[in-house]
């Protein structure tokens, strides 16, 4: 929301307990921080508490490091971890693609027009095809081909690009390679994948063809964090649209493209705005 | 659509071949039948042709039996099978339920108000709970309890009620028993089940709990014909709604109720209006 | 959400100012009230602050009157008004109808099954038609016919029934009479109407016919509070569905029924759960 | 649908009368044309008949001119007009824009990837801003600035570009100028505009700001043909999404962008596939 403009964002979680809200809100008050948006959720099944606040300091001498230190001092008693984001921060990301360009095109459009507060540091692909699109946007394009033999080296190169770019999020925008368990693990919680199916619907290859065979009347897409199991990580966002018998597999694929773009962009925005919390294999999305 | 009022409906299918449309439309013209709605679909992958026409005879002496005979004579060359429905026909149905009444309540409301052109001949349940609802609508209620020992006898009784009622469709409106393979087979193509999941998503028990564990952001329901595998028959309609982390399993169940009602009612209407064609384990729904 | 079970709800609003969150959350902490759900919103254009908390007292001797008094003492400094609702409270309502029964049937179903925490005290209609439905649910039915001559007396009778029933909300569930400005004013903020159009789309008579003439591809409904202008009060919820050229006006009406039911039920639930705040002619709905 | 590949499309309309279907389908059969998709609709209120057939000639010597002549000879008796489109035809279009590029970006992406079978002949804008985007796609960009004084000359230039380009459709992709009545008339039925509101909702300037003031819970967009009244032409497609109080006007604008893109692209596709029929100020969209 535009209410975010000029606002700091604080996102925190800890085990459920009396006073979890108060420890945050009282501190913000004492620091003369004006809360513009606040959302908390206490998961009684999981026994975990989540809070997100957007706020504006009403004092001239607000200092991030002091704020962090003092909040940490209070949070420790609650076992609370937190993240803090300064206003107008753009999240540094690396985007990974193969040949399909619909998600990349959409992300770059939102990046270029400022709709997504991301800072695209690099694009990685196992194919050369999308280089012109990257270069029109003035972005470095790393063509890192892959074979079963070269997979370890290629993944090492991927990791190097990500590390050197300073990216805090990796976006798998239809990257058609299965990451090794090691790389999945490395990127766990900081890589978002778009899966072309309503998980846990159709896994494995060609989900739209599976959907066709099944005669489904809805198709969808799932944006999720990757974990050790590429297609099974915690879900962030899902999208869906109606189809009918006249949608042959190739039509489902086409329809899926629009859903994939919108769903992935939504998930990236939630992540960037620190609305997504990971806990016990599920997400809490304080979507506002 | 209301264009159906006063109209006959003809629904036919046959293997793909030149002239499949013409054999139907020319015949209708020759019989002075005015077509108000026409939809055909030729499935090039399955090699099967489907057509549905709503029409009004423009002659005073239209006779159903003659029409049937003469059309059959022409259709035989194409291997075409067809169904014909007179105007204002109400489909005789039996509804099967257990304890949950949301789908039954919705169906009976649409039945009572004429929104669904069905003629409810009987309600069957393995529990006595919903008898008052049936009796308020003046409908016979067959309480047929079931145990693993009495299952064969109970299913025989179910079949008897269905047969004697003259029902052409059995609606499983949250009937919480797994039908035997034999009864599934008996009812194949003429029984619609509402499954509380976006098939092929969550099978087995408590799909909403599974959905919760998975942290899905969408829940849905699937109306489908039963075949030998109760939960895996051809899909007729699907519905979906957005949810979030704050939906505990019981909330998903509640949300699911609305989706189940609407999705089941839609599937029954499609079936009653002869919009659904079964072929090779999939449906073609000429939904208008 | 089911998290509400066993929880008190506190809803408050006041002009925007530093400390608005803290004054509420600190108080709850001091009272040993465990917050299960918290949502606040600060409207920077309107300069107004809104907060809603669901909480459970963790002390044995929690006393509502003391809680109210002490909170009021703190709130006064902020010009804050608040409402407090005890766990498992059912909102006393009166439902007004004419002849169409789809919304009434839906509300009574949700009332009977506990999906809506309302306590239906009476049903008022200007027609006798829906009396059987009311009586099946064991509810008093007031048939109050109306003509242009008897309108003042009829409205006086309506007001009397509402007052004597102790209802805190009046639900206009397709009551096809225009309330007088005086009665609108009397019920302002405590009467919800369902309008069969996507306000501000089609006003006046027969909006579905207007929609047909216009050839719209979407139809919808709007649930809103009434104010002095019956069809123009603050919007609480809206629903929509796709239609096409084959939907004649009567089909749009039929389609509209489902949307009206769902949209009205949603608005009533939001209101009952104290999620709706009125300010400056608009609503803030902390939908959770 | 992909079933279109390799198929001719025939779209026709005429006054309602017995034999309207047969005159088309019998002819196709006689010409050995295999119908892959057929949809007809008879508007009983408007007394007009519409039909669309996708077909493949099964003879080697199919000749378009002969087909046209012979069909015309039969159609004349019914007062039937028709259009015929060869397989893989790309519709020549001109796109008009101002400064906002979201719709243009989306259309060019679909054009470049073949998702939309259009042939973009030129882009016209009253501002220079989007020239780089056009030139990246290798498309001519006509910067035609406009003032109230130069409007007649500018519109003459617009018309000249359209005429000389051979465009059969003009797409107003957020062109923020009101066309003169004369140019509207000139382009009637062959220009599609995207309106950033759910017509007939908010007309005039800044509809999203109007929507904010009204506190709507849904925002949408409308793609329509222009006629003499720019914002009031026959509707082709509408899209919608849910919003809440936290959407300030600028957020509604942002949300609207996605809806506008998808809705405009859908309308252009329907038009290109000859699915849209204009009659008596409304559209019939045989959407398949």
Automatic annotation (TrEMBL), chains A, B, C, D:
SUPFAM superfamilies: ACT-like (SSF55021), Formyltransferase (SSF53328). Signal peptide: none annotated. The keyword Ligase does not apply. It holds the Pfam family Formyl_trans_N. The active site is at 231. Pathway: Purine metabolism; IMP biosynthesis via de novo pathway; formate from 10-formyl-5,6,7,8-tetrahydrofolate: step 1/1. Keywords: Hydrolase, One-carbon metabolism, Purine biosynthesis. It is an enzyme of class 3 (hydrolase). Residues 93-267 form the Formyl transferase N-terminal domain. It catalyses: (6R)-10-formyltetrahydrofolate + H2O = (6S)-5,6,7,8-tetrahydrofolate + formate + H(+). Its EC number is 3.5.1.10. Belongs to the PurU family. Catalyzes the hydrolysis of 10-formyltetrahydrofolate (formyl-FH4) to formate and tetrahydrofolate (FH4). This is Formyltetrahydrofolate deformylase. It comes from Salinicola rhizosphaerae.
């Amino acid at each position: 929301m535009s209410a975010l403009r000029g606002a700091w964002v604080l996102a925190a979680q800890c085990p459920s307990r009396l006073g979890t809200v108060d420890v945050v809100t009282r501190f913000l008050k004492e620091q003369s921080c004006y809360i513009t948006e606040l959302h908390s959720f206490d998961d009684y099944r999981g026994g975990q508490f989540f809070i997100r606040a957007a706020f504006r300091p009403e004092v001239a001498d607000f200092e991030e490091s002091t704020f962090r230190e003092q909040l940490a001092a209070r949070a420790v008693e609650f076992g609370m971890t937190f993240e803090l984001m300064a206003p107008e921060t753009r999240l540094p990301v690396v985007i990974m693609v193969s040949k399909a360009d619909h998600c990349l095109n959409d992300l770059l459009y939102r990046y270029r027009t400022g709709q997504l507060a991301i800072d695209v540091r690099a694009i990685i692909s196992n194919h050369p095809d999308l280089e012109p699109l990257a270069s029109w946007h003035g972005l470095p394009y790393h063509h890192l081909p892959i074979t079963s033999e070269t997979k370890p080296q290629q993944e090492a190169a991927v990791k190097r690009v990500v590390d050197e770019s300073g990216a805090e999020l990796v976006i798998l925008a239809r990257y058609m390679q299965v990451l090794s368990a090691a790389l999945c693990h490395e990127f766990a919680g900081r890589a978002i994948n778009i899966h072309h199916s309503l998980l846990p619907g159709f896994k494995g290859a060609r989900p739209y063809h599976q959907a066709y065979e099944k005669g489904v009347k809805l198709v969808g897409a799932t944006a999720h964090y990757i974990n050790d199991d590429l297609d099974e990580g915690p879900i962030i966002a899902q999208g869906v649209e109606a189809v009918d018998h006249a949608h042959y597999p190739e039509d489902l694929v086409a329809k899926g493209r629009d859903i994939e773009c919108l769903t992935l962009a939504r998930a990236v925005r939630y992540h960037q705005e620190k609305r997504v919390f990971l806990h016990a294999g599920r997400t809490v999305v304080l979507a506002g």
